């Protein structure tokens, strides 16, 4: 049997496409994180960045030093499409927001607590929602809370001798100068001088 001219032309193009598919499949089967140069895309919420991002980067640096990580803001309405189309490799979100067609794993359960003095003049031993809502409360706007949480995490990383540049990018700041400016505004000194100043107290 002799191939036609048209078949010969198609074979040349399909051969490269099939070769690429076979290579991709083989690479997936023999994935070695220690040698991988793959770029992963992870969808995270603001709170996910605060809690997970630094830990993920640290794990990548140890287990997959040549891999790269892109973090995109989590969009719950688009998440199912992103995962199905391969626009993101993974996402971390609340369990109730997981797309039905995606595989998932429970990472942890989160609980919230309310603190009040045992000597509070109006609250009994059992704090009810109605009693809580009737009381004056101290709280932060989410943006302010996120900012404070990032700064506390920054102190933890800086105390481990991680560079200012690495800390800034791991915590999601677009530039190192933006991180330094915010740090100085909050603590009164730059990150590089914080642990050199003996008269500072952090609460």
Report on this model:
Among the domains are: 31-111, Periplasmic binding protein-like II (D-Maltodextrin-Binding Protein, domain 2), CATH 3.40.190; 140-194, Homeodomain-like (Arc Repressor Mutant, subunit A). α2 (46-63) links the parallel β1 (39-44) and β2. The termini are far apart. α6 packs across α7. It contains eight helices and three strands; from the N terminus they run αβαβαβααααα. Residues 198-203 have low confidence and may be disordered. Strands 2-1-3 form a three-stranded parallel beta sheet, covered by helices on one side. With 203 residues, it is mainly alpha-helical. The radius of gyration is 25 Å and the shape is elongated.
In short:
Helices cover 49% and strands 7% of the residues. The protein is mainly alpha-helical and 203 residues long.
Which terms summarize this structure?
Arc Repressor Mutant, subunit A; three-stranded parallel beta sheet; D-Maltodextrin-Binding Protein, domain 2; 203 residues; mainly alpha; 49% helix; 3 strands
Reading off the top of the CATH hierarchy, the class of the domain at 31-111 is best stated as Alpha Beta
> How much helical structure, as a percent, in the residues?
40-55%
What percent of residues are in strands? 5-15%
Name the poorly predicted regions: 198-203
The side-by-side strand order for the widest beta sheet comes to 2-1-3
Note the total helix count: 8
Q: In CATH terms, what is the fold-level topology of the domain at 31-111?
A: D-Maltodextrin-Binding Protein, domain 2
Bulk shape: elongated
Say how many strands there are.
3
Distance between the termini: 83 Å
Structural class: mainly alpha
CATH architecture of the domain at 31-111: 3-Layer(aba) Sandwich
Topology as a string of helices (H) and strands (E): HEHEHEHHHHH
Q: Rg to the nearest angstrom?
A: 25 Å
Any idea what the CATH superfamily of the domain at 31-111 is called? Periplasmic binding protein-like II
The major pleated sheet works out as: 3 strands, parallel
Average of per-residue pLDDT values: 76
